[in-house]
Amino acid sequence: MSYDFDRLTDRRASNSIKWGFYPGDVLPLWVADMDFPAPAPVIEALRAAVEHGVFGYELPSPKMYEVVAQRMTRLYDWQVAPEQVVAVPGLVTGFNVAARIAAAPGDGILMQTPVYFPFLSVHENVGLVRQTAPLKPVSHGRTLRYEVDWDLFESAVHAGGARTRMFLLCNPHNPTGIAYSRADLTRMAEICDREDILICSDEIHSELLLGETQHIPIASLSPKIAARTITLVAPSKTFNVAGLFCGFAVIQDADLRERFVKEVKRLTLHVNSLGLISAQAALTGECDDWLAALNRYLTANRDFVADYVRDNLPGIRTTVPDATYLAWLDCNELIGSGKIEGSPHEFFLNEAKVALNDGATFGPGGDGFVRLNFGCPRETLVEALERMKAALATV
Ligand SMILES: Cc1ncc(COP(=O)(O)O)c(C=O)c1O
Mind listing the pLDDT tens digit for each residue in 179-204? Predict the structure, then answer.
């Protein structure tokens, strides 16, 4: 079947943060949602629920847990049982709950920066010490690829005298776009096992796989690693239903799961019924053909961005992400040469009328970068890049 990802959908009339935050002359390529409608089976399931018309309290259906468990087994050959799946209102909620059960005030939480900004405030929410293991950018001509710096990783463990209790992994990684290799995941897992650290793995981008990329859940490495891991998955990024707030924690160790569920109850967290309905429709497999087409479209957009930046935006280097719809643009050369003064985010917002995410908000290693969301029709992407090129031509 063919799907029309080129079609423009007007989102300005909705309550979209991405499209509503900046004035109407700004083209927004920032917040991580896509400008495409969700796949038809998701919309049909939501329509049926709306037409039923009664929106009383609901529980996730037993089928919902089966659908998530079966998807893990089908995609990754990772044996997950339905009772090992816990519904959560979102993944940011999920990793905050995980930190609350993993660590006590004064303990350490480890993460790899630059990183999705809500990671950076978990320590404040829970009273922990943030321990950062910066990823290492490596240049390949005009493109960038991030790697794990193992010395920095090892030295961040228990840094500052705080015992590291949780490693908050982002795989695939936002904003650098890395889908970690089996070798990297194994090494991280071995360190966590050696130091008795719980792993919370945010895998929200795991199905937005570009080109030939494969995703490996860290918990699928071995039952031993699974026993110390909370894996967070969701339909939200993949099927563009982020505003419906529904995600899942896969927790195979019974004791860990019990503690997680208890904290979810203590915080009185509930998952939105329409979110669960969308998740069930999205994850059954009915939308997989749409997803394969989406990933082909996003791969072509990724390659278009990389070529365009190389050929038309001198002084900028981009990542070529393995996964996600996020390109991470290094503008430090332009800052160093004085062509851009201050933040590139402000420069492109004011001079190009293009809204990108400010790299500085992604923590250490983010200064001088912007994040560009290419989850949009090609026409929008071209317009944004041309505006950026025109703005750079004036400096
Ligand atoms: C790595 C990562 N985790 C979590 C989220 C958001 O998750 P949720 O909306 O389910 O809280 C995002 C959104 O961009 C993300 O990139």
Answer: 999 999 999 999 999 999 999 999 99
Copy the structure tokens of residue 186.
């194994």
User: Of 368, 373, 369, which is closest to residue 385 (Cα–Cα)?
Assistant: 373
C-alpha–C-alpha distance, residues 90 and 219, integer Å = 20
CB-CB contact of 9 with 35 (8 Å): yes
Q: Probe ligand 1: pick from 205, 237, 238, 373, max atoms within 8 Å of CB?
A: 237
Structure tokens at 301: 């957009």
Residue 183 CA to ligand 1 centre (angstroms): 25
Residue to mutate (ligand 1; options 91, 93, 112, 328; most atoms within 8 A of CB): 91
Whole-model pTM? 0.98
Nearest CA residue ID for atom 7, ligand 1: 91
Closest ligand 1 atom, CA of 245? 10
Distance CA(63)–CA(38), nearest Å, equals 21
Is the distance from CB of 88 to CB of 94 less than 8 angstroms? Answer: yes
What is the Å distance from ligand 1's center to 171 Cα?
12
Range of the domain at 90: 46-283
pLDDT in tens, 209-258: 999 999 999 999 999 999 999 999 999 999 999 999 999 999 999 999 99
Substitution site in 180, 236, 326 for ligand 1 pocket (most atoms within 8 Å of beta carbon) = 236
Q: Which of 283, 298, 331 is the last residue of a domain?
A: 283
Together in a domain, 196 and 60: yes
